[in-house]
Amino acid sequence: MRNPPSRLIRSLLAAALALVTLTGGVAAQADSGSVSFMVFGDPAELAAYRELVEAFEQEHPDIAVELIHIPSMSDYRLRLGADFAAGDPADVVLINYRRYAPFAKKGVLEPLAPYLRRSDVISDNDFFPVATDPFRWRGQLMCIPQNISSLVVYYNRGLFDAAGVAYPSDDWSWDEFLETALALTADPDGDGMTDQHGLGVDPSIFRLAPFIWQNGGELAVLESGLRPIRLALDSRAAREATEWFVALQTEHGVAPDALAEMAEGSESRFLNGRTAMFLNSRRGVPTARRIDGFEWDVAALPTGVQQAGILHSDAYCMAAATEDKDAAWAFIEFANSPVGQAIVARTGRTVPSLIEVASSEAFLDPGAAPANSGVWLDTLDTLRTVPVIAAWVDVEELTGDELRRAFYGQASVDEAIDAMITRTLPFFAGEES
Questions:
Q1: What's the domain range around 118?
Q2: Segments in 275-365 forming alpha helices (H)
Q3: CA nearest neighbour of 311 among 223, 398, 380, 399
Q4: What is the pLDDT of residues 32-75, one digit of tens each?
């Protein structure tokens, strides 16, 4: 029979509709799904995200999560950009506040404010405002931050003790910081080469920024008080802070020179007990907890004419291309619930963005290093952010090139500042008001 009778077709359709009604059909599919989740980080961080995924799947057995791990942060950024460009990103990704703007500008991120407003698990008021504010793009909350770290001083208590140097105080000054670094820079074997440095630091605009703010300077010139139009590093306050920062290496030699840094990075030197102080965010804790040769702790940055710190924050973002947005939101919601944030906080990786978890033992664990974890909470009121613009990644890369030239004595501070301002102008020109 070439064409079945219409009565038969109607019967088949009725049977199909009945089957959908009995089994739940499309409605049942809405209660299930899958989510791809891409992260970066060392083995300790990966273990935490695996635990997070397992806990989520136990609570949501109908949603499967595919965990994609990229160990290197730089490789992660490349993968992130390539995936979004190809239109095939992971459903949920971690992005720093300094780097989400180009994706928000292109419209490839799903705004999360509507989801948060409907949530019975978390609300906007549960988070530290300094964590959520940078993720508001054109007034719309785009991503939910998982952490709220700041730059601190990691220090080797054993080297301090051996040199008879007092541990950092809560309110130490730039001069005291330099005096400490000088006292801890040494040539133990007397061969004329510095074997132990007082300080390790990445010569980048992100590390320099808090010192500029502490000296009363700004990073950018704002048009009508809102839109950044260029770097403000040529102000007297910013120039003085940059000169002080660069002189730590070029004049005082408390940080490794270019050749020494190339041979072994400052973080490795700190972990191996050959650098007394190292500037880093909370992200360094899981790795530092594996140190077994000496005791270490953390302290606040030294203070200039005023207190200032710099925000470090990553957030869970949803790709606009995500097919199962309800499932993706369920995962983001769980990851940023007290249970979810506590899982990651226990690794030492994060300062929780949830006010409740930040004050809990999951973060302030008295039995886990560092002893002074409270410093991250004590300095919250001093945190500031870099400009949130689509081209900030390019600004950081170019300024880093020039600042390194000055830090390692290959250019003067004036030359570096002029080059940083001039070379980054095109990236500010394209920003919307």
A1: 32-148+313-377
A2: 285-288, 325-335, 338-345, 355-358
A3: 380
A4: 799 999 999 888 789 889 999 999 999 999 999 999 999 998 99
